[in-house]
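Note to self: keep these together.
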Amino acid sequence: MLTPLQIDPAALASGVNNVWVLTVTFLIFFMHAGFAMLEAGQVRSKNVANQLTKNMLTWSVGVIVYFLVGAGVSSIVGGGANPFGYIAGGSDAWIGWLFGAVFAMTAATIVSGAVAGRAKLRAYVTYTILLSAVIYPVVTGLTWAGGFLTTIGPGFQDFAGGMIVHGMGGIAGLTAAWVLGPRMDRYNEDGSVNIIPGHSLTFAVLGTLILCFGWYGFNVGTAASVFVVEEGSVALGAFADTVGRVALTTTLGMAAGAIGAATAALAKTGKVDTLYVANGMLAGLVGITSNTNAITWVGALVIGILAGAQLPVVFEFIEKRLKIDDVCAVFPVHGSAGVLGAVLFPIFAIPGYSVSFVGQIVGVAVIAGWTIVATAIVFGVLKLIGQARVSPEHEREGLDVAEHGVNTYPEFGDPGADVMADGGNDIIRTDGGDDRDIKMVVAMLRPEKLGDVKQAIAEVGAPSITVTNVSGRGSQPAKKGQWRGEEYTVDLHQKVKIECVVADVPAMDVAEAIREGANTGEPGDGKIFIMPVDEAVQVRTGKTGPDAV
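Structure:
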């Protein structure tokens, strides 16, 4: 006769629940990769490393501060009896803290996208410390930790942080961007707007999709209890009646957000703007995050569409009316979409679920008011003491070099096509004539042809070249570009400038090699110029004339 295994139902439920919470926590942490890519793609190439660094430091600095201070402050505001008990509280307490920490760091990292391109790293890190220690914990203390916003009618309802995390982060980002002021050249003297496109739409879209993937951890993961123990037996907890609805409405809200943004962009510009579609997916997710556990599938579609459709309208209002330079559109994506989802919750709530307009509106107003005041004070003080914004010289140079001493894109061309500086032992230099005139061959070419041209130049015996990234205008016609629904004229095209000085190699041979390597047969292939050089001096030896070349 088989003896049944003796299983402690409480131990089983606790173990499975902890595994679930840790799994979704790691999924939410992975959203930082999405934020890093999304923000890096929407800034200029000279500021990419700065955005990546800020995202890493947000986690690294913020999570420690939240452990030592922030989680305890949240408990104090919520009326907890042992606010810092989690520090020595054991495995379950530490898992619960980590689950809260990834939400806190999400709110913090949203701000970095709004202030991109001009905030000092020390200013951003300072704000991250204060947000993790006080600003965000006060919000969670007033809500999830049991503070007074839970006492207004049925209480302010926010299942997974649509307003508490994302709305708060978007509002903080907008406030910080307002205090800092716009990037240089963002607005003309008459107030008209200059479009500053980001450097990689690919990064932005891939970052968006990573965020969408991680969002399932954000929303579905909040249904944290897989099992509960009832009368000595294991039964399904939130998975019984909540997790399926959350998965469904999260998916529908995300999809509807993309459609809403695409439709609004099409109506506004006549084109489906790629970046607005990406931003719309996120806005739809933000709109659904506060209510995803208790709304109908119809409500998910309506809220998602509205959250996506408001993007172009709100962004244009902020950009052109308020003159606030929100680089990564964090307010229309996170702020206004979070407010919308929280306020519309009562309209689409499932029958029997207790949520009121009064509770939702008061909650939104309190969270927004606290965030605006606290953020304005922090960045206002930093601005007053001259520590908020980089210098104009550093802003023009780019924060990658000014703040980090790195160049995110240091290489030109295909590394596989690199040629040794001496050209190799098999290259025979050709006599260019008795007079050995020194000539400089200068070419402006398509960047993608650089590898072929480097190889061709080496093969004629002149491997020593200088390469520079440039922009220029020639016979290649101008074209229209679009960035987040706004058209701008692209009349300066990206090129590489190659300079090659020769003495013993005929300049025309070099020019012909360049022409053959760079030719595609299409307008915009570039031009080649040959110029005399009066003199040359070799730094190491002091040789002059052709011998120096």
